[in-house]
Design brief:
Number of helices: 3
Largest sheet: 4 strands, antiparallel
Shape: globular
Radius of gyration: 13 Å
Order of helices and strands: EHEEHHE
Distance between the termini: 5 Å
Number of domains: 1
CATH architecture: 2-Layer Sandwich
Strand content: 25-35%
Structural class: alpha+beta
Helix content: 25-40%
Number of strands: 4
CATH topology: Alpha-Beta Plaits
């Protein structure tokens, strides 16, 4: 099994609060369920900790193997979601590991 973890800090957009943007991000990421076949599970969490070091959102997907993770990265729905996320975030951190 391969676990893919991505964390972001959101960008304030169009007068929205940080929390509102994070909720939009969560909905968009979760929209991949049933539309992208290249993961075994998908989880999205929003930060509730009051810390300057905290990210705002996290995505955790689990993949059968590295080939499935690579297929996920190339999936057109994932690319569309990734573009939306990139437009609404300031920073991103990624960790991929065998689990």
């Amino acid at each position: 099994m391969v676990t893919h973890v991505v964390m972001w800090t959101v960008r304030h957009k169009d007068g929205q609060t940080r929390g509102e943007v994070a909720e939009q991000l969560k909905e968009t990421l979760e929209s991949m369920r049933g539309r992208v076949p290249h993961f075994e599970s998908l989880e999205v969490g929003l930060n509730r900790a009051a810390s300057d070091a905290a990210c705002d959102a996290v995505l955790i997907t689990r993949h059968r193997d590295w080939a499935q993770l690579n297929a996920y990265r190339d999936d057109p729905v994932h690319r569309e979601v990734a573009a939306f996320v990139a437009d609404h975030t300031d920073s991103r951190a990624v960790v991929d590991f065998e689990s």
